[in-house]
Amino acid sequence: MLIRKAEFVCSNTRVDKLPPATLPEYAFIGRSNVGKSSLINAMLGKKGLAKTSQKPGKTQLINHFIVNDEWYLVDLPGYGFAKTSKANREAWEKFIRRYLTQRDTLQCIFVLIDSRLEPQKIDIEFCCWLGENGLPFMLAFTKADKQSAVKSDMNMAKFRRSLGEYFEEIPPCFLTSAELKTGGERILETIADVNTR
Ligand code: GDP
């Protein structure tokens, strides 16, 4: 997909204030620091579009970006801040779960996973929650440049195996590096395919 235009639309703390649900929408989510902002910026070819490294405790926002005037990319706040309070965590869950389950135009959720790590419980649990709610998702493994291809493949395989304990069918997986600008194009092609269906 050629990115002709990518613009920030709005940030929201409330699901009832989101832009009108008129365009197909693709959400990106993952543990904080997984490399979500970097991947979004690399994919859309705009450096400071999504802010990198949001600090824990900051207002958690749903950020809408419009791409090629055709679809929304939605940057969701990261989960799994080690230092956040229980109250903060619960507020995050309520807010994000509400968005994910109520947004009619949401086509697919890209769950970002750090390719350097063994399967993390919080990521598996989040995928299971998506599955239980019948929400379509795919996996984007990040930071591939940080280790050998063999190691990335091994961690991806381990993650797929862990998911396999809960899912009959494993969703598509993409290996990406924001640093090397790899993997994003395949995600964009997938989005283009869904948009033309
Ligand atoms: P977010 O909190 O998920 O939005 O994560 P960020 O995009 O802010 O990235 C967290 C840290 O990881 C930053 O220091 C980034 O520079 C670094 N990072 C993100 N993606 C990559 C990548 O593909 N390769 C490398 N080497 N570093 C990355």
UniProtKB/TrEMBL annotation:
Q: Which cofactor does it need?
A: Mg(2+)
Q: Which residues form a coiled coil?
A: none
- UniProt keyword list: Cell cycle, Cell division, GTP-binding, Magnesium, Metal-binding, Nucleotide-binding, Septation
* InterPro entries, sorted: G_ENGB_dom (IPR030393), GTP-bd (IPR006073), GTP-bd_ribosome_bio_YsxC (IPR019987), P-loop_NTPase (IPR027417)
Q: Where does the record place the EngB-type G domain?
A: 22-197
Entry GO MF terms: GTP binding; metal ion binding
Family matches, as SUPFAM superfamilies = P-loop containing nucleoside triphosphate hydrolases
Q: Does the keyword Hydrolase apply?
A: no
Keyword Membrane assigned to the entry: answer is: no
> Which processes are annotated in GO (biological process)?
division septum assembly
Assigned protein family: Belongs to the TRAFAC class TrmE-Era-EngA-EngB-Septin-like GTPase superfamily. EngB GTPase family.
Protein function: Necessary for normal cell division and for the maintenance of normal septation.
Q: What is this protein called?
A: Probable GTP-binding protein EngB
Which species expresses this protein natively? Rhinopithecimicrobium faecis
Q: Which gene encodes it?
A: engB
